Amino acid sequence: MTENLSESISLPPIVVIDDDQEDLDLIRLIGRKLQSPNELLLFNNPVTALDYLQRASQEPALIICDVNMPLINGFQFRSRLLETLPSFLQVPFYFLSTSKSPLETQHAQELKVSGYYQKSGSFEGFRDTLKTILMLAGIAI
């Protein structure tokens, strides 16, 4: 039996928060195809994700978050995360959203995120965007 290298090294996970289950399924599929050694943790509820991050034993390697979600939106998520865990300012944080208005982009910059990307309507475009985010965050693929 072979040992999973990512388990033996215990690389920090990649955390993805998106209320759209189809997008999470697509991200899971793309993650498998890109073969990142980091575990991919997917959350469809931002409150659950925030609770997980507050209790986690290690900071994630990367956080990718949708903007338009129920309960709390991505901007509120980012604000609450930094209020409770200011050290997460050092964790690469990218917004990945269907919308990209100038106001949202400006708000994202004010929250000191690493980037704001618009979701592509095609599989290839979505894959390329995720690949870019992973590379910018220093994640091996």
TrEMBL record:
Pfam families: Response_reg
Residues recorded with modification 4-aspartylphosphate: 66
Gene3D superfamilies: 3.40.50.2300
InterPro entries in alphabetical order: CheY-like_superfamily, Sig_transdc_resp-reg_receiver, TCS_response_regulator
KW Cell membrane (keyword) present: no
Domain Response regulatory: 13-134
Keywords recorded for this protein, A-Z: Phosphoprotein
Keyword presence, Phosphoprotein: yes
UniProt name for this protein: Response regulator
